[in-house]
Amino acid sequence: MLSVFKFLARWPLPLLHAVGWGLGWLAWLLAPSYRRRWFHNTALAGVRGRARWASIGEAGKQVAELPRLWFGAPVPTGWEGASHVEAALRHDQGILLLTPHLGCFEITAQAYAARFGDAAVEGAQPITVLFRPPRKAWAAEVLRTARERPGLATAPTTLAGVRQLIQALKQHQTVGLLPDQVPPEGLGVWAPFFGEPAYTMTLSVRFARTPGTQVLFIWGERLSWGRGFVVHVQPWHEVVGEPLADDMTQAATQINRAMECMVLRQPDQYLWGYARYKAPRKGG
Questions:
Q1: Hey, how many other C-beta atoms are within 10 angstroms of the C-beta on 24?
Q2: Taking the complete model, does pTM exceed 0.85, yes or no?
Q3: Measured between alpha carbons, how far is 209 from 81 in angstroms, rounded to an integer?
């Protein structure tokens, strides 16, 4: 399987996106449960018209571009708001990067590592991202080979992984995670997301409360016709407009509102088929 990914990594990005667009529509047509979630989630958020239907093909692009991002040559990537990262690094702060399932969330960590994680650059800090290890052995091998690179490390969704991330923040390094991921039972609270209760991780709130940590919202916009990506960065105060609440549920609600704001900037690139409102799994 690894050889297949490396073969696809040589394909040009426009071709991968064209194939992905078709695969996105095929998955939507052939998977009734996925289609029902997509209808429900887009209606809940008030997403209609072109953006709603375009999200089907964009979801396929998100999958098809992975071989190129993991094993291929670097893709064109611009920045909007990089000065917020630079300011946090100048002040020797830990950085918590929060991104929803929007656009190309693989490119955000890669782009940060390439620009700000080089150990040879003075003031640079590496990034550690939280991820759930896949159950399939072949997938675990692909991800292990693909994701770890200079300036970028990964931490599993285990107690040891959480400790690794907390230690990184305390050392004024950078941590990234997707706060709209449904956590296991006992690791979240029920908070509204587009008006409907969604089990929301408390881990992002706990990380945000780490002393000396700057919270930044980040997402990777996928440009049309395979032209590359733009990484967007905004600080907490621009998106939320108020301090992080002391109450855990209120704080989780603030983060969910921030996720909503980001998603509605580019609703055609959000994964509306993601089971955001499912019950949490038991057993961690």
A1: 22
A2: yes
A3: 23
Give the chain's end-to-end CA distance (angstroms, integer): 28
- Single-letter code of the amino acid located at 78: G
The pairing of strands 174-177 and 213-222 is unpaired
Q: Is 156 left (phi over 0), alpha (psi -120 to 50) or beta?
A: beta
Cβ atoms < 10 Å from Cβ of 8 = 19
For residue 45, what are the CA distances in angstroms to 40, 201, 257? 9, 20, 12
Q: Which amino acid is at 18?
A: A
Q: Where are the beta strands (DSSP E) in the chain?
A: 77-80, 94-98, 127-131, 152-156, 174-177, 188-193, 196-201, 213-222, 229-235
DSSP-based three-state secondary structure for 152 = strand
Give the integer Cα–Cα distance in Å for 117 and 149: 10
Which regions of the chain are under pLDDT 70?
119-120, 137-141, 144, 283-284
Nearest Cα to 171, choosing from 128, 122, 206?
128
pLDDT digits (tens, 9 = 90+) for 237-281: 999 999 999 999 999 999 999 999 999 999 999 999 999 999 998
The pLDDT value recorded for residue 155 is 87
Closest CA to 89 of 65, 130, 122, 40: 122
Which ranges of 31-177 would DSSP assign to H, the alpha helix? 32-45, 49-64, 66-71, 82-90, 105-116, 137-147, 159-170
